[in-house]
Design goal:
The protein is mainly α. It is built from 6 helices and no strands. It has 2 domains: about 1-95; about 100-150, no CATH class. It has helices at about 5-35, 40-55, 65-70, 80-95, 100-120, 130-150.
Length: about 150
Amino acid sequence: MAASRPHYLLSVLAGAGAGLLLSVIVRVNATLGERVGEVEATVLVHLVGTAFAILLVLPHLGPSFWETLSERPWGEFSGGLLSVAMVWVANVAVPVLGTALAVSLFVAGDLFFSSVADRSGRWGLVRVRLSPRRVLGLLLAFAGVLLVHWG
């Protein structure tokens, strides 16, 4: 089922906003990492995030939440592990590469994997074919990384 136009537009705006936040997040986290250590900053960032997430989920904690949670396959919980790895990598890479190059590498890598995931339709994602235009977009994203690097 296709998303309604307002829902689609809201999703586009939210995605663009998340992209804007990414640069701020990796810079703030990397600065903390330079002050207290990369691994230590990764732990601190996730402790603060966990506390905030607990506040967000508290109104929804009830028997149905726990029942639904118990029915989910373990692989769906790997996002937390991957998030810790991502923050740690950013804490290491951003001070060395700078925010623009590091984020452009993250985005280009994400575009590549996302295109493969979209094409396969795995994890319940919408299946999106890999058209010549999409391939050109991926190549342009990687060209953008090179331009940021050599710019």
